[in-house]
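SAMPLE LOG
Freezer: B-3
Tube label: C17
Construct: single chain, 218 aa
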Amino acid sequence: MTKYLTHPWLAIRVQLALGALFVIAAVPKIADPPSFAHMIYNYRILPAGLINISSLVLPWVELLCGLALIVGIWRKAALAIIAILLAVFIAAISLNLARGNAIDCGCFNVSLADRTVEQRLGDMRLDILRDIGMLLMVAQVWWAITRSSGNILATSRKSMSASSETPKPDPGRQPTPAPPQPPEHPHPHPGPQPPAVPEPSPAPPPHPDPARGPSASH
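STRUCTURE (predicted):
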């Protein structure tokens, strides 16, 4: 199960979907800051001095985090900020739901109006479930990134340990001379030769015949 949940194929799609959701949520707030400031005021949580600045800064934070996830840069920082924002949204909506204060979330649409109290309370419950789901998306992408980084780190450590175990030559040690090799014959050694035939000895000179005697000289 872990293999499938942290698979890059799934993680990149969840990351892109999460980034697109935050970009979509930020655009209407940037386009209409007064309406978003009014919705922040309805939460009855922030002091009056922080409402206007929050309505101006918060949408740009959402936009930048969403773009970072889409482009694939500063992913861990963007995921951390998104997780904090979602936790704040869940806590704020839950607090007003417990008070019975029916408000518009203002997460994706800052121009909702003419809705009954029951409709708004129902929407708030759905908003909490939606933000919890998005928080799970953040956890999935974070887990996949951490697991991938851990695998890369483990691989680099193995390669470093393997290289450290390889013996290194000692610069102060003289190399051992190689033993002398027998001379190589240019031609292969001939096989056994037949025994040499001795040459015949020269015949002895003829001896004179004693019966004939010496020849007469004239």
